[in-house]
Amino acid sequence: MKKLFWFFNFLVLAIVLPSCGSQPPSQTATITNSKQVSLSNSKEVKSKIYSQYKQWHGVKYQMGGLSKKGVDCSGLVYLTYRENLGIEIPRSTALQSKTGKEVKRSELRAGDLVFFKTSYKVRHVGIYIEDGKFFHASTSKGVMISNLNDYYWKDKYWHSRRMTS
Predict the structure, then answer these.
(1) Is residue 57 annotated as part of the catalytic site, yes or no?
(2) Annotated catalytic, 124?
């Protein structure tokens, strides 16, 4: 019975984890309400992201989670965009990594999505704030703010995308 339990858990992870690395078609974000924040207004976008951080700081990481009981990186990005910026974006890291337009790391502004390759098939996403800082759900520390230039993240940076509606 114990072997069956571990086999089932392994099978679920083998199916779920590689899906982060798929290559879906490019998509655009859509406005979800009349309170949409203009993504070109960096001051307002930063304010909304910091507000979300204050509400979610320390919430533990949970793959597939979308609540304060647990949230994953793409879920946090999805919720932040939907609830605080009034923009609907895809739920998964794979789809988010193809939405909007690519932007150079040197041209990042508040609200841009930053993507990382954390292992061979695993991708991670966060929302850029300012001065190298980004908002994300870490697998080890939960919802937090990190720096692109930190030892761990510096070499794992993959690319960035700017959402367009």
Answers:
(1) no
(2) yes
